[in-house]
């Protein structure tokens, strides 16, 4: 698996393979072609070392297949200095094959390599048992704090943390 910056070239695969579970976790509804294009064009302009980074997870090889993605966001609401929000997602047909752990572990390693990130914050829907298991596998722990979903204030998520230092 390799991570690359997400951009408009990933739109077709995301649109074709998004499902209700993915849509619910990311933005609360399915992407439209226009809303996804707008997001991916913005993401492609973000600096590689900037405060918001989104990645596409590809199978190995020069003609890799998109399996999912994720990112780091140092500007998310509710974050303190030294914290970054960790996100990850896997397209439906690739779930249950270890891609989620592989891509999230790679993003965690990128965060560990950056001195300004001391703690990762994960926001997980209480009923998202696969994401909770993945977070535990990374070493993250639930805080018990319930917050509003960053993309949809009508839903709630549980705050998890992964300490990177100390």
Q: How is the secondary structure organized here?
A:
Layout: E1 2-5, H1 11-17, H2 20-26, H3 33-45, E2 52-58, E3 66-73, E4 83-90, H4 99-112, E5 119-124, H5 129-138, E6 141-149, E7 152-163
Parallel strand pairs: 4-5
Antiparallel strand pairs: 1-2, 2-3, 3-4, 5-7, 6-7
Count of strand segments: 7
Overall geometry: globular
Strand arrangement in the largest pleated sheet: 1-2-3-4-5-7-6
Total individual domains: 1
How far the N terminus sits from the C terminus, by CA atoms, comes to 29 Å
What CATH architecture would you give? 3-Layer(aba) Sandwich
Largest sheet: 7 strands, mixed
Q: Structural class, please?
A: alpha+beta
CATH homology-level superfamily: Gcn5-related N-acetyltransferase (GNAT)
CATH topology: Aminopeptidase
Give structural attributes.
166 residues, Acyl_CoA_acyltransferase, single chain, alpha+beta, 33% strand, 7-stranded mixed sheet, transferase, 7 strands, Aminopeptidase
Model description:
The chain is of the alpha+beta class and about 170 residues long. It has one domain: Gcn5-related N-acetyltransferase (GNAT) (Aminopeptidase, 3-Layer(aba) Sandwich), CATH 3.40.630.30. About 30% of the residues lie in helices and about 35% in strands. The chain is built from five helices and seven strands; from the N terminus they run E-H-H-H-E-E-E-H-E-H-E-E. The protein has helices at about 10-15, 20-25, 35-45, 100-110, 130-140; strands at about 1-5, 50-60, 65-75, 85-90, 120-125, 140-150, 150-165. Helix 4 (about 100-110) links the parallel strand 4 (about 85-90) and strand 5 (about 120-125). The longest helix is centred in the middle third of the chain and has 14 residues, at about 100-110. The protein is globular, with a radius of gyration of 15 Å. The mean pLDDT is about 90.
């Amino acid at each position: 698996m390799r991570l690359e910056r997400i951009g408009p070239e990933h739109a077709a695969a995301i649109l074709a393979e998004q499902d209700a579970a993915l849509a619910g976790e990311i933005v609360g509804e399915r992407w439209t072609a226009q809303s996804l294009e707008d997001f991916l064009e913005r993401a492609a302009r973000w600096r590689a070392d900037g405060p918001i980074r989104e990645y596409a997870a590809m199978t190995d090889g020069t003609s890799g297949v998109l399996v999912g993605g994720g990112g780091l966001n140092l500007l998310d609401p509710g974050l303190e200095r030294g914290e970054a929000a960790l996100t990850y997602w896997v397209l439906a047909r690739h779930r249950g094959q270890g891609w989620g752990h592989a891509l999230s572990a790679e993003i965690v390693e990128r965060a560990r390599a950056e001195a300004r990130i001391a703690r990762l914050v994960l926001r997980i829907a209480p009923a998202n048992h696969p994401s909770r298991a993945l977070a535990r596998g990374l070493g993250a722990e639930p805080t018990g704090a319930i917050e509003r979903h960053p993309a949809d204030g009508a839903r709630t998520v549980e705050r998890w943390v992964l300490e990177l230092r100390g």
